Amino acid sequence: QLQGLIFDVDGTLANTERDGHRVAFNTAFEEAELDWNWSVELYGELLKVAGGKERVKYFLRQYKPGFVDPQDINQFAAYIHQLKTKYYLELLHNGAITMRRGTIRLIEEARQANIILAIATTTSLPNVIALLEKYLDLDWFEVIAAGDIVAAKKPAPDIYKYVLNKIKILPQNFLVFEDSDNGLIAAKKAGLKTIVTVNNYTKQQDFSQADLVVRDLGEIDQPCQVIQGDFTA
Ligand code: XBP
Ligand code: MG
Predict the structure, then answer these.
(1) Is 106 close to ligand 1, i.e. is its CB under 6 Å away?
(2) Best residue for ligand 1 mutational test, from 10, 97, 181 (most atoms within 8 Å of Cβ)
(3) Of 182, 207, 187, 216, whose CA–CA distance to 51 is shortest?
(4) Residue 124 buriedness (CB in 10 A; 0-12 / 13-18 / 19+)
(5) Does residue 8 have an active-site annotation?
(6) Confidence band of 91 (pLDDT split at 50, 70, 90)
């Protein structure tokens, strides 16, 4: 029976991308005196690459070939990324990022039912810590698996396998909450039942492998709207 929930962060627990990470990247570009600006639309395309550093490197390859010498690309991406993380944390502390509907309710209900909670996210650990400390409680989570803790990011299953190695619950007794095709593929490769909550950046993606697709997790007086599948899954 259900013994554990594993939550993705960006797009699932909170809508962090359009007004959070994207804005933080653009502020980092300004500070680095680069005349780059990732529009909402361009960022949607860049989101196909999980990981902020990996996303910068993808952008360089696709849109700025030759701008940075190949041997300097990792260092350049790390430099931009540490600037961006500083700005993202400022945005988060200032309240620019809020939890999605139904997430806090579901987490509190899970705690009442003694269900184990874990995080499996591509975003950097400081970003997760700041979000959970602001809206929830770090102690509620048995495992917080984030960012570079694993070599291969989503859609590789590594981050989910990391959680499964840390918590002695059978995979079939977990339920995953995700928002993107990358995340769904990662969870499925780890053999995990997955519910997808869509958002504007991901609603057109292929979620045929999901056990359930809903608009959001809903509140007691506002049941969640099923888009695909049914609750018996
Ligand atoms: C989403 C990501 C992350 C964030 C940016 O993670 O792919 O890279 O976009 O955060 P998830 P960083 O949906 O798995 O939570 O810049 O710290 O990577
Ligand atoms: Mg996500």
Answers:
(1) no
(2) 10
(3) 182
(4) buried
(5) yes
(6) very high
Please tell me the distance from the alpha carbon of residue 90 to that of residue 108, in angstroms, as a whole number: 27
**Closest protein CA for atom 10 of ligand 1:** 123
CA 203, 96, 178 angle in degrees (round to 5)?
30
Structure-block tokens of residue 202: 């991901």
**Check: complex ipTM more than 0.85:** yes
pTM: 0.97
**Residue in 141, 128, 122 with CA at minimum distance from that of residue 54:** 122
Taking the alpha carbons of 174, 129, 77, 34 in that order, is the dihedral positive or negative?
Answer: positive
Catalytic residue among 8, 179, 181, 211: 8
Residue 231 token pair: 């609750």
| Cβ pair 178, 184 in contact under 8 A | yes
